[in-house]
Each structure stands twice: as structure tokens, then as C-alpha cells.
Write a structure and sequence with these properties.
Strand order of the largest sheet: 2-1-3-4
Number of helices: 4
Distance between the termini: 104 Å
Low-confidence stretches: none
Mean pLDDT: 86
Oligomer: single chain
Length: 198
């Protein structure tokens, strides 16, 4: 009987040891599984965050490109409208009645020729008009301030003149005058034309 008891005791000890080994192995497997699961979750989260950042950056980049293209198109359209405004102004000035147009040119001539005479470069179609203006201008001024029409050099487009003295020249062509006005008034005109638009 003692042998049975010894066998029982050995079996009992072996079972206890086996249970302990199984519990330890199960705990180690559970710990490994939990650790692997946590590592996989962290890796998945890291990949997800990286993909989200990449997607956000791509969307942001595309949005910036679209905004830039839209702003460029709006600016081009605004510039086209501004050009139309000044082209229309030029057309209207050139279409003024002769005496009204001559009055503008007379004032421009008086404000340009102040301390020395010179030549006026004009468009051939406006030579007669400027001959009259020069004759009027020269009537009451000393010889040093007299102006003549430059027959050798002419303008390629109608509108205004270029005054050439022996020292300097002043561009009073319609295109230059309108460019100067556009430069000075562009912000104001743009605000007026496009107020309320973005």
C-alpha cells in the first residue's frame, strides 16, 4: 500500500507540476499574444496616422494648387476687364469732337512746354490739328518757347504727342497718359469694379 501511496503522491506532484507548467505556458502565451496584439495595434495606428497625414497633405497641396489656379484666373479676368476699360477710354477720347479733343491737347501742350521750345512728334493723321495748336501756342510766346511739328519723326498711333527739346523729351501720348492713370488709379478702379467679389 505504501507503493500505491507513493505512486499517488508522485502522480499528484506530477499533475501539480504539469498544471503549474501549463499555467505558466498559458500565461506566457497570453502575454505574448497581448504583446503581439498591442504591437500590431500600435503598428496599425501608426500606419493609419501616416496615411491620414499623407492624405491630408495631398489634399492640402491639391487645394493650394486649385486656389492658386482660381486666383490666377480671377486676376487674369480682372486684368482683362481693366484693359477693356482703358481701351474703351482711349477709343472714346479719340472719338471726341475735334474741338473738344483739341482743347484737351492745348492744355496738355501748355502744361508741357514751360521753359524751352522744341518739336512735337505727332501721328500723320493729326498733323493738321497740331499745326493749328502750335500756331495758337506760338502767337503769344517768345521764340525760345516756340514749338514746331517734327516732320522727320512721327508717331505710329493717333493720340497725343511727344515733346522733344534740345535737352529732354516728354511723352504725352495717349497710351502713356492712360498707362500712368491706370497705374495710379488701378487699385481704386479695381475696388470699384470688383467690390463684393473675391
Amino acid at each position: 500500500m505504501a507503493l500505491d501511496q507513493i505512486t499517488q503522491a508522485v502522480l499528484e506532484a506530477a499533475r501539480t507540476e504539469a498544471d503549474l507548467i501549463l499555467k505558466t505556458a498559458k500565461k506566457a502565451a497570453d502575454d505574448n499574444l497581448a504583446s503581439a496584439k498591442k504591437a500590431a495595434e500600435l503598428e496599425a495606428d501608426r500606419r493609419y496616422q501616416a496615411m491620414m497625414r499623407a492624405s491630408e497633405e495631398e489634399l492640402s497641396r491639391k487645394l493650394i494648387q486649385l486656389q492658386g489656379a482660381a486666383n490666377k484666373e480671377v486676376l487674369q479676368r480682372k486684368n482683362a476687364v481693366m484693359q477693356q476699360v482703358f481701351a474703351e477710354a482711349r477709343k472714346r477720347i479719340l472719338a471726341l469732337p475735334v474741338e473738344e479733343y483739341a482743347s484737351i491737347l492745348r492744355k496738355l501742350l501748355r502744361s508741357t512746354v514751360t521753359d524751352r521750345g522744341g518739336k512735337l512728334r505727332v501721328h500723320p493723321a493729326e498733323t493738321d490739328l497740331f499745326e493749328r495748336l502750335a500756331a495758337d501756342f506760338n502767337q503769344n510766346c517768345p521764340d525760345a518757347l516756340k514749338v514746331t511739328i517734327d516732320g522727320e519723326h512721327v508717331l505710329s498711333e493717333r493720340g497725343g504727342f511727344i515733346f522733344v527739346s534740345d535737352v529732354f523729351q516728354v511723352d504725352q501720348t495717349l497710351d502713356t497718359l492712360l498707362e500712368n492713370i491706370e497705374y495710379e488709379l488701378a487699385p481704386l478702379i479695381s475696388a470699384e469694379l470688383f467690390s463684393g467679389q473675391k
